[in-house]
Amino acid sequence: MKQIFKSKEPKSLANYRASISKKDLASLEKFDTAPSKVKDELREQLLKEQGFICCYCMNRVEFRNSKIEHFNPRSNFRSEQLDYHNLFIACLGGEGHTSNHQSCDTKKGNNQLKHINLLVNIETIIEYKKDGFIYSNNSDIDRELNKILNLNYKLLKNNRQEALNQLLIDLKKRGWDISNLKSTLEKYKDKNSKGKYRPYCEMIVYFLTKKLKSKGITP
C-alpha cells in the first residue's frame, strides 16, 4: 500500500458536480449517471496519478481492467460521490467470484475503512514478510487489511512473493553492493519512463530499505 498524492481534478468532473444541486448530490445516485466523457477522463487521471497500480494491492491496472473506487462508500457518503479526494483507481479484485476469492474494492463493498488512510504516509505502518504476507502492528489497520480488503488472499500473497523472488534473482546477478541497492531502491520508488510504478513497488521498497539499514545506511 502506497501513499497517494492527489493532483488537480479533471475539469469535466468539476463542471458536472457544479451542475448538480447539493440536495440531489446528497440523495440521488449521480455518479452512475455521469456522462461517459466525465468517467473516462476521471479514470485516465486517476491511473496517471497512481502510476497505474491499484490503490490497495498495488497490482498493475490499466484502463480496461480497473474500477473507480469510492474510498468512503456511496451507500453512506452520497455527498462525497463526486469528491475527487474520495476517488481512486482499483483493480477488479476478483469481481464475479465468491467473497473469499475477492480483494480490494470488490471485497470491501459498502464497508468503510476507518483506520487506513491512503492520503497519508501509510507506508510507515505497513510491513511485509518474505512469503508476501502483508500486515501491520496496528491491530485496527491489520484487521482492515485482512477482513475488509482481503490483501492476504492466496493469489495476491503469491504474487507479492514472486515479485520479491524476482528482485532477489536480479540482485544476485548484479550484486548486493550499496550503490546497486540504492539505485534499485530509487527505481522502485519512482515511476518509469511511461509514468508507471512497478507492481507491488512499496513492498520492494520496504525490503530494500531494511537491507540498506542492515548495512548502516539510512536511505
Roughly what is the average pLDDT, rounded to an integer? 95
Count of folded domains: 1
Helix content: 40-55%
Q: How many helical stretches?
A: 8
Strand order of the largest sheet: 1-2
Main sheet record: 2 strands, antiparallel
Which outline best applies?
globular
Topology pattern, helix = H, strand = E? HHHEEHEEHHHH
Gap between N and C termini, in Å? Answer: 19 Å
Oligomer: single chain
The strand count comes to 4
Structural class: mainly alpha
**What percent strand?**
5-15%
Uncertain runs:
none
How are the SSEs ordered, and which strands pair?
Layout: H1 11-18, H2 22-27, H3 36-49, E1 66-70, E2 87-91, H4 104-108, E3 127-128, E4 134-135, H5 139-148, H6 154-174, H7 178-189, H8 201-214
Antiparallel strand pairs: 1-2, 3-4
Helix pairs in contact: 7-8
Briefly summarize what is shown.
The chain is mainly alpha-helical and 219 residues long. The chain has one domain (11-214).
Q: Which features would summarize this protein structure in a list?
A:
single chain; 219 residues; mainly alpha; two-stranded antiparallel sheet; 8 helices
Could you please describe the fold and organization of this structure?
The structure is a single chain. The chain has 219 residues and is mainly α. The chain has one domain (11-214). 41% of the residues lie in helices and 6% in strands. It contains 8 helices and 4 strands. The strands form 2 sheets. The chain has a two-stranded antiparallel sheet.
